[in-house]
Q: What sequence folds into this?
């Protein structure tokens, strides 16, 4: 009825789809912690890039304030999700 190649393709697709659903379910339903940390890493990434700009232009206070503010948001995000505050924001002077 079906060609063997077509059947193998359907089985492979089903296995791939189910494995992706299972792994996505782990991160989605595990108490929210991995999602929360991934969300906090958004602030960490922005703070690191803002810090690069602050170090490149140490005489511009606007860049320094933005980087420090983003580090504070990152720490608040970690604290709100039950993680210890891990980062002391660097000095950009």
A:
């Amino acid at each position: 009825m079906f060609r063997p190649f077509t059947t193998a393709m359907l089985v492979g697709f089903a296995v791939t789809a189910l494995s992706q659903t299972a792994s996505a379910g782990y991160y989605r339903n595990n108490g929210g912690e991995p999602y929360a940390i991934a969300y906090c890493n958004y602030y960490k990434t922005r703070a690191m890039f803002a810090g690069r700009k602050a170090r490149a232009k140490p005489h511009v206070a606007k860049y320094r304030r933005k980087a420090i503010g983003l580090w504070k948001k990152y720490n608040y995000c970690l604290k709100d999700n039950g993680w210890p505050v891990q980062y002391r924001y660097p000095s950009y002077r």
Observations:
- Residues 20-29 have pLDDT under 50 and may be disordered.
